[in-house]
UniProtKB/TrEMBL annotation:
PANTHER family: EG:BACN32G11.4 PROTEIN (PTHR43459:SF1), ENOYL-COA HYDRATASE (PTHR43459). Pfam families: ECH_1 (PF00378). This is Enoyl-CoA hydratase. The lineage of its organism: Bacteria, Bacillati, Actinomycetota, Actinomycetes, Propionibacteriales. PROSITE patterns: ENOYL_COA_HYDRATASE.
């Protein structure tokens, strides 16, 4: 039974059918960049879902034309003056807040309706399943911005697509369209844009209809890994802040804002 949506700051929560919760990143004017307000709303929403026994599947999508453009570039540009230890602590809190979706025992689906870039791709990777709308673009373009990867992507991306494809995407910083993402295994299905969310919700309803304990135990088994995500987060939370104070980061941000190609100097 559908219920009235709940609106938090930059996040919308809906229950369109029994057992299914849709989290919509809702900052479309900024391509659903992960603002402080959205981050706080996400923290509260995930904490609430952890204790909600009625939830059997969670869908994450974006409002407007993007899934998420990633972190707030204004904050990144202003953070270079902060000491690395303080930035490390901030980044670990940020990463862990968003990646808490991995702690949900129920299956999660990323409905990638549009661009999923940088940390935005990280959120999609943190979900168990990814479906993309035709024409959506995905990428880990950190190096093109002058930034070290974060949000667990140097762990999560190889986990999903394998080492070779992950090295290609991380070291080139290139974006891939939905069809290539499907070939790489980055997404499981590409769906026409018209009716995209309806089709994802139909799949979520199928998942929600499965035996809850069997589904949760299956998910737990699939999540067993040979290495630690937290070890990777520790590395990223130290390495990413080092790049905050570089001229290249400022250049990368300026280039994005001016819609031109960046000219990096290695400083």
């Amino acid at each position: 039974m559908s219920s009235a949506p709940e609106s938090l700051a930059h996040l919308r929560i809906e229950r369109p059918v029994d057992g299914v919760v849709v989290l919509t990143l809702d900052n479309p004017d900024q391509m659903n960049a992960m603002s402080d307000e959205m981050t706080a709303s996400w923290r509260d929403a995930i904490a609430s879902l952890k204790g909600d026994g009625s939830v059997r599947c969670v869908v994450v999508t974006g409002a407007g034309r993007a899934f998420s453009a990633g972190g707030n570039t204004t904050w990144l540009a202003e953070s270079g003056a902060l000491p690395t230890p303080a930035l490390r602590d901030q980044m670990l809190t940020f990463y862990r807040t968003w990646l808490a979706i991995r702690e949900l025992e129920v299956p999660t689906i990323a409905a990638v309706n549009g661009a999923a870039v940088g940390a935005g791709l990280g959120i999609a990777l943190a979900c168990d399943i990814r479906y993309a709308a035709a024409g959506a673009k995905l990428g880990a373009s950190f190096v093109r911005l002058g930034l070290h990867p974060g949000m667990g992507i140097s762990y999560l991306l190889p986990e999903v697509v394998g080492d070779a494809a992950a090295r290609d995407l991380l070291l080139t910083g290139r974006l891939v369209e939905a069809d290539e993402a499907l070939r790489l295994g980055l997404v499981s299905r590409v769906v026409e844009r018209e009716g995209f969310l309806d089709e994802v919700l139909a799949t979520a309803a199928q998942v929600a209809a499965n035996a809850p304990l069997a589904t949760r135990y299956t998910k737990a088994t699939l999540r067993r890994q040979r290495t630690s995500l937290d070890e990777t987060l520790q590395v990223e939370a130290l390495a990413q802040p080092i790049t905050f104070g570089t001229e290249d980061l400022q250049e990368g941000i300026a280039a994005v804002q001016a819609r031109r190609a960046p000219s990096f100097t290695g400083k």
